[in-house]
Specification:
The chain is mostly helical. It has a three-stranded mixed sheet. Belongs to the G-protein coupled receptor 1 family.
């Protein structure tokens, strides 16, 4: 590993969310519930989109990838948080910390690109409906997802290089519940000014590079919606975008503030991280299912089919045993 010779730290101590055992017990139950609901909600979205042929469209292809990313992102931080809430010693190895830094960047980084791609998909569907099937072909959609993963992976690799080049002499307590690069900077005994500048530039390029396409896509979408004479037509068209707009606001709002603000180890830092790493992955499947009639209908059809098949198998087994 490329840590310098006088960096003798082999593990870090995470302060966690609380030192009170009773509060930790309550937090464990709370975040365990959030994590289980997140896993269940996103798995149901993946299952429904795969099982229902009516949802085999570009929009739901991207939505299934978003559910997979939310599942991964939540699994990067929440299981470790749950473990630490039950442990007296909250530590993480240097290698484990670097690994977490990498995945904390690659999963939300890919999600940012994917939200941008989903905005372009809505732009193509609403502003150029006659060309939509031709523009958003299956091959093109797959390429957009692969490019999103590739660019996010490159950005995460650069971020990890910044962490590898830090020198840690004595301080080893991370003022956070997880390993995030801004929380590692205060522990370094070397000059971090260049690292901070690179992180800010990377965050701005990544954030603006994904947010600006969303902004311009929706500027054109709003212009097209306002040109529709029918009030019901405007409402119906906008409803297809409202779920995505809520997801964008939740994700970019907390993520950009967290990485552009100076790290202070305050409760605000923890709340912002919890917002985009634990709460948003839980809310996304709810947002897209509660505000989308097609998804709600597909959930009812899919769950009904599986429940009916399970009931038929139960009756067959019951009849076989009693014959």
């Amino acid at each position: 590993m490329a840590w310098r010779n006088h960096s003798t730290i082999t593990e870090f101590i995470l302060i966690g969310l609380s030192d009170d055992p009773y509060i930790e017990a309550l937090l464990f139950v709370f975040f365990l519930g959030i994590y289980l609901l997140t896993v269940m909600g996103n798995l149901i979205m993946l299952l429904v989109i795969r099982a229902d042929s009516r949802l085999h469209t570009p929009m739901y292809f991207f939505l299934s990838n978003l559910s997979f990313l939310d599942l991964c992102f939540s699994s990067v931080t929440v299981p470790k948080l749950l473990k630490d809430l039950l442990s007296e010693k909250r530590t993480i190895s240097v290698e484990g910390c670097l690994t977490q830094v990498f995945f904390v960047f690659i999963t939300p980084g890919t999600e940012a690109f994917l939200l941008s791609v989903m905005a372009y998909d809505r732009y193509a569907a609403i502003c150029h409906p006659l060309l939509y099937d031709q523009v958003m072909s299956t091959q093109f959609c797959v390429k957009l997802v692969l490019i999103s993963w590739g660019l996010a992976c490159l950005n995460a690799f650069i971020i990890v290089l910044l962490a590898i080049n830090l020198d840690f002499c004595e301080a080893q307590t991370i003022q956070h519940y997880t390993c995030e690069l801004p929380s590692l900077f205060p522990l370094s005994c070397s000059d971090i000014s260049i690292n901070v500048d690179i992180l800010i530039c990377s965050t701005l390029l990544h954030g603006l590079g994904t947010f600006l396409p969303i902004f311009f896509s929706y500027a054109r979408i709003v212009s097209t919606i306002l040109s529709i004479s029918s009030t019901s037509g405007r409402s119906k068209t906008f409803s297809t975008c409202s779920s995505h707009l809520i997801a964008v606001t939740l994700f970019f709002g907390s993520g950009l503030i967290r990485y552009l603000m100076p790290t202070t180890g305050s409760s605000l830092d923890l709340l912002l991280s919890l917002q985009y790493s634990a709460v948003t992955p839980l809310l996304n499947p709810l947002i897209y299912s509660l505000k989308n009639k097609e998804v709600k209908a597909a959930v009812r059809r899919t769950l009904g089919k599986y429940l009916l098949n399970g009931f038929h198998r139960y009756l067959q087994n019951f009849t076989f045993k009693h014959n």
